[in-house]
Amino acid sequence: MAAGNHTEASEFLLLGLSEDPELQPLLCGVFLSMYLVTVFGNLLIILAISSDSHLHTPMYFFLSNLSFVDICFISTTIPKMLMNIQAQRKDISYIGCLTQVYFFIIFSGMDNFLLTVMAYDRFVAICHPLHYMIIMNPRLCVLLVLMSWFIIFWDSLLHILPLRWLTFCIDTEIPHFFCELAQVLKVACSDTLINNIILYVTTAVLAVFPLTGILFSYSQIVSSLMKMSSAGGKYRAFSTCGSHLSVVSVYYGTGLGVYLSSAVTHSSQSSSIASVMYTVVTPMLNPFIYSLRNKDVKGALRRLLG
């Protein structure tokens, strides 16, 4: 499109993971399978928690919210990718691209916040067990989730509004399988200084603070466990953190892998492949981690399916 008038931009071109036509059916089959497994697995977790009164606790309330967010997270990117592969096209409308950026920021940020809130929940449960139900009352749990939605909603708007001021050239190609904010900024034809400043500042604030909260919570948990004299008590207490700690490790590990791959190599395709880990693989693994490592969830799933 002509520089200086972004309203003429009707579409962008998503280059995807590979331009090899022989790989397209394989990619379609693999990502369709992963998408269905993710949606079905997280729906089962939500249904199991909602149908079992034993799981109506703060920990599982946050877990059901995490499963809902994971379904929305993967649904932001994969359906459009599958549609393009099936239609043998690469286009995405200008509004569609901005919408994808907007919701991707919201759901990835909510994943971040919910993992932090769940770490705080485990901290209270282990370090202050006698006051757990008083502190983690239903009102506080709902308030924590609503606050997370509120903060990430405004953060996403903070990115989208300046993004609409940018200009793009005709047939702009985005070397990714979805509209990621950083990639969209790279292909803009106008100055992106303000956008990049907002991106770096908000990423630093909304990534560092939640991660610091998680690390602080687990440092206090480890400190409390060290004071316990019973080995069995230590194991039982820490076993309630096992699933959450596994999900945190996968989420931040894959996110760090994407960042390092982008920093080490300038290959857009390598960065796109690395992005698959936290946009697709992580939401797919979460139901398995929680169901395989948690007796309560396994029991609820058996009762639900039985």
Automatic annotation (TrEMBL):
It is a multi-pass membrane protein. The chain crosses the membrane at residues 23-48, 60-81, 101-120, 140-161, 197-216, 237-260, 272-292. It comes from the Eukaryota. Keywords: Cell membrane, G-protein coupled receptor, Membrane, Olfaction, Receptor, Sensory transduction, Transducer, Transmembrane, Transmembrane helix. The keyword Iron does not apply. Putative odorant or sperm cell receptor. This is Olfactory receptor. The lineage of its organism: Eukaryota, Metazoa, Chordata, Craniata, Vertebrata.
